Please model this.
Amino acid sequence: MQMLWLAFDSFAGKGIGVVIILKFLWYSALMAAPQALPIGVLLSSIMTLGSLSENYEFAAAKSAGISLPRMVRSLVFLAVFLSSINFLFLNYVYPYAVLKQLNLRHNIRKKQPALALVPGSFNTEIPNYQIKFEEKYGDEKNLLKKVLIYDLSSRKGNNKIITAKSGKIISEEGSRYMTLELYNGYYFEQHEKKAANYRERKKMPASHADFDEYTINIDVSSLDGTDLDDLKYTKNFNMLSLKQLKDTIPTLKKNYDTYISNRAKNLFLTLDIGDLHEYPDSLKNSELSQDILLNFELDQQDEIMSTANSKLERTLNNQKSYKNNLKDRRKWLNLHDIEYYNRVAFSLSCLLLFFIGAPLGSIIRKGGMGLPMILAISVYVLYFFTNTFGRNMAEESTVTAIAGSWIAVALMLPLALTLTIRATKDKGLFDINGFFNSIITFFKNIFSKKRETTHNDNTDLI
Model:
């Protein structure tokens, strides 16, 4: 429901046709289905078996010699079948829905330029402009705060820059122009002409001015021919099936290893490590000091240290500039690995949550929509957030992709086994009396052994 309401908030009342909105919501529903099915199995199993236990149906069956595992055997087969359906859904329907929804969202934004502007990053969908702003607010989400605009219409780079404290988008349906009204800002334009070198270009004049109000009319007619069914993004990790992921991951790993190897070679060549090698003892000059700097004059030592420091600083800055690129490459590879293993792990959630919900319902002996609903939501939230936590750790390379994908199953499986065993043996959820009785029995056995030992020692003395 949250996904659907967010979609309504983005597109409802924006002049988009009902058919397009329904199509977008249909793809959103397909994406939500694999997550809705496990909680549906969990809730229904708690409610069904809780209702049977509450009405003493289990007691009647047990008196007739029918055990709990025999009664729920058909439900186990149903849970296995639903897990298989969930796997097929995740492998075929979910990637298709993500593919269609993401491209439809992008194409709608190109059709509606006001929707294409997203706060916090540079927006490049508008022709000949790069627009960035801090916040979009107002009833129609057409008011902007802290606007930065690069005007690229001259095709000469970022020569024209406009900043403003606030702005307003005016976009009428059917119009070929989108109007930006900017307030309380600053305008700068560098008048660049043909020059022989960089120094002469730097001397070219520029104009700048403060303004209270500035209006920009942007021609967006080139976006009218956008096909809503056009598929521009097709290589995202969640758009691929397991077979496609299996074929893609080795290529990504090979490219990543090649990138690491090339960076290591460049670093090796930059530092001239090959020159730092050992000479045979017979070629060493005994008059040279082991401290290399002491073999040079003082001014030469300063020059050597200055050159070494500058070279080291350049190397460190160079490596820092590649750090984010390396991190992004590793993260992109991790996302493919996680998606591959999580498809299988998450498809088993129906079966896993059934073996939690079914015994839990028979233990609490409560049907209906009250307590079972609370327990189902609590268990599913625990499972979902554990799965998300594992995926996030694997994404940041804190754990492996296999561990991050299966951590939720590993943590929830002992709970499922414990509840199933206790329900089969007709035990409660928490047997407090049995717990204290076991402790009392343990201490009684210890003290009884001590008394027997003391009695035997006294008999030996007599």
Remarks:
- Strands lie at 129-137, 143-151, 160-170, 177-190, 206-219.
- The two ends are 84 Å apart (CA to CA).
- Residues 36-102+232-274+295-450 form one domain.
- The CA atoms of residues 51 and 367 lie 4 Å apart.
